[in-house]
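WARN no homologs supplied; continuing
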Amino acid sequence: MARLIYTSIVSLDGFVADLDNRFDWARPDEEVHGFVNDLERPIGTYLLGRRMFEVMRAWESIGREPDDPPVIRDYARIWTGADKIVFSSSLRGVDTARTRIERQFDPEAVRDLVRGASRDLGIGGAQLAAQALAANLVDEIRLIVAPVLVGGGKPGLPAGLFLQLGLADMRRFSNGMVFLRYQPVR
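OK structure emitted
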């Protein structure tokens, strides 16, 4: 049975972007990137908010050069091999392969999509993930915590939502990042 998985790199104080909307402090090194590639490999479809899509669409052209690191080329293959659904009321169109636009987030339609999927689905973008978390659609939360405090910005998890979680896995990386995998207690 397919699962809906929220994966994000966050600062230690819980932000995906800082007060200047920067996230360069979250750039994974080769070890973390390889780990993320393995996490993402089973994803068949990405559900993305507009802003996350605009960031991630760069992977349509990244990783094509023979001198690009293998971990980068690998992730480019993972990204281009997956379907993408972008939730946006303002995006006029998309120029990326295997991508379609949905104008609004419909929890029941997403629930049906997950039920009918043969591969896991990833949800990206903190605001879109917040909607899915509030609708009790997310089966797993995967956080990679960067060893940095940014003092504010865009939160990686929604405020005002109580959700009991069970720790399913964790891993420490040599660069100080930590992977945490949680599942909602249902």
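Strands lie at 4-11, 15-17, 43-49, 83-87, 99-102, 120-124, 140-146, 154-155, 165-172, 178-184.
OK
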